[in-house]
Amino acid sequence: xxxxxxxxxxxxxxxxxxxxxxxxxxxxxxxxxxxxxxxxxxxxxxxxxxxxxxxxxxxxxxxxxxxxxxxxxxxxxxxxxxxxxxxxxxxxxxxxxxxxxxxxxxxxxxxxxxxxxxxxxxxxxxxxxxxxxxxxxxxxxxxxxxxxxxxxxxxxxxxxxxxxxxxxxxxxxxxxxxxxxxxxxxxxxxxxxxxxxxxxxxxxxxxxxxxxxxxxxxxxxxxxxxxxxxxxxxxxxxxxxxxxxxxxxxxxxxxxxxxxxxxxxxxxxxxxxxxxxxxxxxxxxxxxxxxxxxxxxxxxxxxxxxxxxxxxxxxxxxxxxxxxxxxxxxxxxxxxxxxxxxxxxxxxxxxxxxxxxxxxxxxxxxxxxxxxxxxxxxxxxxxxxxxxxxxxxxxxxxxxx
Amino acid sequence: xxxxxxxxxxxxxxxxxxxxxxxxxxxxxxxxxxxxxxxxxxxxxxxxxxxxxxxxxxxxxxxxxxxxxxxxxxxxxxxxxxxxxxxxxxxxxxxxxxxxxxxxxxxxxxxxxxxxxxxxxxxxxxxxxxxxxxxxxxxxxxxxxxxxxxxxxxxxxxxxxxxxxxxxxxxxxxxxxxxxxxxxxxxxxxxxxxxxxxxxxxxxxxxxxxxxxxxxxxxxxxxxxxxxxxxxxxxxxxxxxxxxxxxxxxxxxxxxxxxxxxxxxxxxxxxxxxxxxxxxxxxxxxxxxxxxxxxxxxxxxxxxxxxxxxxxxxxxxxxxxxxxxxxxxxxxxxxxxxxxxxxxxxxxxxxxxxxxxxxxxxxxxxxxxxxxxxxxxxxxxxxxxxxxxxxxxxxxxxxxxxxxxxxxxxxxxxxxxxxxxxxxxxxxxxxxxxxxxxxxxxxxx
Lengths: 401, 445
Hints:
By secondary structure, chain A is an all-alpha fold. Chain A is built from 17 helices and 2 strands. By secondary structure, chain B is an alpha/beta fold.
């Protein structure tokens, strides 16, 4: 260990200001502090500090994601075996799935690291561990059969446009992982639009995702009946909770996502206010829509002349379908791009829930609404904060009088 | 009686709390008065090296406010005046001549009936610098009319002195000091205590008692003001340090300036953390020598959150009443960010297994590298004021005057946000940001 420490200390001298490798200082600093915790001293301010730092904070989010990866890989293999009609062991399914997940993961990290490190060098800021979280999130939002070059493009776009051009972690407006997801959604719609089944299977294997079923019904019925009528996949509430359905790699198993949420809330890293208010917003709007569809079966809210089955999706179904929970727990709570005040966090989360249902139900062209809802609210988060802070200012002004 | 119950905050479980015995420090012949302990003044010396002075004699005055003079904190010779950059006076060191000190208590009792009398008496005696003000945490301006006066006898800072213990025998002088402080304001005189302490004060009808409960920074003057009578851009609130009450009391009742007080020496690397009968500006070495368990130690005048780093041969700051010592560690653990936890890790986040249980030996390690600020709800957890500290910090960084004022910069002080810096995972120095904002609005006025 001491030998390694010495190598780092000696090589570090080459990276100091004015030395030939000074341009790569952020890279050396990152390597150095990943291997050995920093010996930086408290200079100004308090003489003692808490043991929590950004490295550990970000690492904890990655830990919360690991179960989703493991289950995602297993699910890919399981669906594959099911489609081929063969029975296969859990381990075998898992290995098959890993052959899809690992390449996506590796490509994401390569693309992310290239962007982050080169920007850190040019902009002369530290390499922020936040990019690890972005890169860990992106593969989980991908369909398993996504082409790798698209992953590379999407990740680069997300990190650069979503984060670096705004100045890096701490000053970005949009969640980089979701920016990547949105880019791919609109740039490569044939692979990632969300209405065709995202599962790996034999050629010609296709079907409708849970969201696409009520969006494009053959014949009008309530969403629950349509789900029940689906023969290809089991879209019962129970099965959607346990996650043995097609979908993005990380979104399907709701139990693991909830465990991740509990872990992050317990550690004090993610905001429980945002998570709770997202769910409240979603429940509120979907109940409203249920009532609307009940009142106006032949009424106004119809798409293409037939009544809109999307309006009949119950709140619980909304929560379990698609990536709502995944987005709520891991994307909406991203601290930099969400609201920075507690009141703001309630409003921000609530509106994400509302927008999710609106995008899903009113316009069946976009069956998956969560990521759009979060991106839209990322944009409005500063505005929400502005009004929350203004109310504090008004309170203070009234005190002055 | 007003009651304040603070929920947001944190009592840091740091090792080395002083035991309740009062020792005498090793013989020490020098004390120091440092103009650097006072903000926004331009000191001009009235003495030179080698002069003999008596306790309470004027030593320097403020060129911006010439009526305010600073007292000699010892009788004897001025052995050294240390200058810093651009001949700024850093320190005035006195050689104590104990004979003279015991010789001439300059008794001169006075009848003080109103604000003017009290102010003039303190100015005449060169004792005005004991009275400080909020906003800005500086020596008060005698011509101001403070909205109220507040004294906090509830010390919540880590390893700070327990006033209930150190001031136990000073009942008469405390009452005398409070009687005269009340004359300084037409408003109220608030005295903050912890439940069940200083019971005799509640019999005094001119005092408004405030009972403070909760974790640090509940006992901070800034936090208490924010809860009971928030200041605006036009107000000032005056305050006096709890440990200075006996000194002021003796001054009012007997006319004597007695610079002795009880301080504590504490911290994880102190062999025998305890209280000392010491004095203003005492030498740190006389308390620490032979009492530290490590060679590389940072000796701090004040508490570990807001104190001033000092060399071993440094001195106690004018307003400080404790000496804290922590180890200077340069330990680098292998992949430290993966550490599972245990007794060696302390965090207000639930990020380590089984931490925070036993008193923790903090060192000077920053425990992480500085990073861009990520607003997970860390600051808000430990900041019990109705101020959006995050928005305020942003407005200061953006140098937006108006917004700083609107968001309550006048109500904050560095010490109130020290815990925010302590918990911040990005290792931001929030206190420095607040001080920058205060400086900006101060020099703009």
